[in-house]
Amino acid sequence: MLIADAQIHIWGASTPERPWPADAQARTHRAEPLGADEVLAAMDEAGVDRAVLVPPSYEGDYNDLALAAAADHPDRFAVMGRITLTDPANAALLPGWKRQTGMVGVRLTFNKPGLAEGLRDGRFEWFWKGAEAAGIPVMCLPVDLVAEIDRVAERHPALRLIIDHLAMNSAKRDGSAFAALDQVVTLARRPNVAVKASALPCYTPEPYPFHGIQGHIKRVFDAFGPRRMFWGSDLSRLPCTYRQCITHFTEALPFLKGEDLALVMGRALCDWIGWTVAK
């Protein structure tokens, strides 16, 4: 079974040549940078074949390290890169976006000042139109903004959207975190929307195998099906081992088995973002 992780961050240190935003250090998942070599070693140990590299927001809108890793290891890494939404001139980048070696899409977060407002008031329509026209899949983390993403999906039916971490707030746990699902499952009626069931151990204080969140995962699976629900780790902030994050899905969820399990653990993600899988 192919195992493809839908989200891993790698990043470098803040330097004068490559400075981070002023408030970024307080938001990092750990003090020291996480590089491609360390991630590859963790993947090999856990049995992960592929991973989508997602440059973290706390570093700034840099894609260089992730693209370099994908160029060096094209069979292991692909990149959902960052773009600066507040600059409409970046629309010119979209037609050639996927011509960057290893780049398969864009990842957006709306946690910086002005970004949530821009999503609500239509300021970023240039991006949605351009991504749809260029066939660029988009991962996004719309905490408290699911209704706005629903409207984007309706306006742009050919745009492939992926909702990160089930749109949950990283500061919340258990019932309060998974309350976001009330809105998220309504997105299943949009055939151009998929979800990342990623970083889920981070949203419960319960130890492995996290029995208390099984019902929430089943609810998402029932709504979206195996072709639109993707397993992922968000490795750098996991409260459990990487292997446990995998076996949580492969061994501890009785409703996931056979072809459905194979799709959720990697094949459906690769299909959705156009990352070719050898037959």
Structure in words:
- The protein is of the alpha/beta class and 279 residues long.
- It has one domain: Metal-dependent hydrolases (TIM Barrel, Alpha-Beta Barrel).
- The chain contains ten helices and eight strands.
- The protein has an eight-stranded parallel sheet.
- The longest helix is centred in the last third of the chain and has 16 residues.
- It is globular.
- The chain starts with a strand and ends in a 6-residue tail after the last helix.
Keywords, separated by commas or semicolons:
single chain, 279 residues, alpha/beta, TIM Barrel, eight-stranded parallel β-sheet, 10 helices, 33% helix
The overall pLDDT average reads 95
Main CATH class: Alpha Beta
Query: Would you identify the CATH architecture?
Result: Alpha-Beta Barrel
Strand content: 5-15%
Low-confidence stretches: none
Total number of strands: 8
The SS-based structural class is alpha/beta
Report the CATH topology name.
Answer: TIM Barrel
- Cα gyration radius (Å): 17 Å
Treating each run of at least 4 consecutive H or I residues as one helix, how many helices? 10
Helical content class: 25-40%
Distance between the termini: 12 Å
Tell me the count of domains: 1
The coarse silhouette is globular
Strand count, sense and barrel status of the largest sheet are: 8 strands, parallel
Instruction: List the strand order in the largest sheet.
Output: 1-2-3-4-5-6-7-8
- The CATH superfamily turns out to be Metal-dependent hydrolases
Task: Give the helices and strands as they follow along the chain.
Answer: EHEHEEHHEHEHHEHEHH
